[in-house]
Amino acid sequence: MIFLLFIVGQLANAAQNKASTRTLPKPVIIETRLSIEEVEVKDGVLETTVEAVLALSQNELTTSNIEVLLLPVDQQQHPFTDIQFASEEQQTIGSFRAITKADGRIVAMKERKHLKTSCPLSKRFPFDGRTCELKLTSVRQQASSLLLRFHPSPSSITLSPTITTSKSHLVKVLPESCMFETVYAILSDSVLSARHSCVIARFFFSSPMIPSLIRYFLPPLIGPFIAWFNLFTPRFNFLLRFIILSTGIIIVFISSVISQSTPPSPTLSPLDQWYIIVSIVLFLFTIEFFITTSLIYHSHKYRYMSTGQGESTVRVKSRQRIERKESRRLAISAHNDVEKSGSYSSMMADVFLHSSDHLSLIATRIDLTARFALPSLLIFLITLFFFFHIYVLSE
């Protein structure tokens, strides 16, 4: 008896499951095709002019009694009403949309729209551009009753040859199907989560490397080059060296002001890092200039002190202070006797000339070292910079 009841229960459950399976609605498959006429990316906003074609899947279509009509845009009574672009701004172009009827029902629709949507910066300017998306969603019907997918052909997304972009070029468009969940309130105390169907056309924009190098990276390099050329001018011509160094700094400053029109980035962009490298090298050139100038100035001062003529009051006092210091140093030296070394004045002149030559020699060595060290440092930093970012791009 128990076994019989068990069999009856299993048969009842099977019948119930079969009945529930039969009551499940068959999902309507709508295939989409996008024809993109124009693309413009500016300040992180993607502007596109798109011709969208929505049609029932081939197994849903009939080939008899087909007619093409024009439906007013403000008329919303058609089976594709709930399928919309998930765009921040959209505007339908024209007053009518083309529809196709088969056996009296609408099976396809075509319309043109102008869309605006934000797209995040995928990688930092100017080595890469942005990743933008156009998403077509079903906002009312769930994915169990309606499925959106791209037309199963290479022409699911076609691009116009006249597409223009700003500061970047379109690398590729990747179409894909997707699902998204929406949580909305039915009553005041309850919520419902539903899965909806969607299709995405993902645009990859990349800034061309060579124009970016010429436009943004080469102008700041003129500053260090001019500053390096400064090391080949006479060290005693302070005014000429100062003018050349100032010219290099002004060029870098003007280049940085012009580059402010680039797309903003919340983090330190590669262009910012580039200006940091150039500024560090220019700062070292400036430090070298002031050190060399100071050494040359003191070298001239000691040489004038050796003559003892045409000196100012401050220089006379300085000369007397140095003389007292050198006299004390020579007095405690057993190997430096004033009588053996000559007169006091000639000995002091030799001291000043020796100091002058020593400072001039140091300035010359610093100049010669900077001629090779600073450009080598700049080349090393540039190589490290590009190696790092090219490696990041490859990743």
Quick synopsis:
InterPro entries: Neur_chan_lig-bd_sf (IPR036734), Neuro_actylchol_rec (IPR038050). By secondary structure, this protein is α+β, with helices and mostly antiparallel strands.
Q: In terms of topology, how is this protein built?
A:
Blueprint: H1 2-23, E1 28-42, E2 45-56, E3 66-72, E4 83-85, E5 89-102, E6 105-118, E7 131-138, E8 146-150, E9 157-159, E10 169-187, E11 190-206, H2 209-229, H3 238-258, H4 270-307, H5 313-331, H6 338-341, H7 344-394
Parallel strand pairs: 1-8, 1-9
Antiparallel strand pairs: 1-2, 2-6, 3-5, 4-7, 5-6, 7-11, 10-11
Helix pairs in contact: 2-3, 2-4, 3-4, 4-7
Series of secondary-structure elements, N-terminal to C-terminal = HEEEEEEEEEEEHHHHHH
Helix content: 40-55%
* Strands, count: 11
User: Structural class, from helix and strand content?
Assistant: alpha+beta
The main β sheet shows up as: 7 strands, mixed
Q: What's the tally of helices?
A: 7
Cα shape: rod-shaped
- The radius of gyration is 40 Å
Overall mean pLDDT stands at 76
Give the terminus-to-terminus CA distance.
70 Å
Total separate domains: 2
Beta-strand content: 25-35%
Keywords: Membrane, Transmembrane, Transmembrane helix
InterPro entries: Neur_chan_lig-bd_sf, Neuro_actylchol_rec
Organism: Pristionchus entomophagus
GO molecular function, one term: extracellular ligand-gated monoatomic ion channel activity
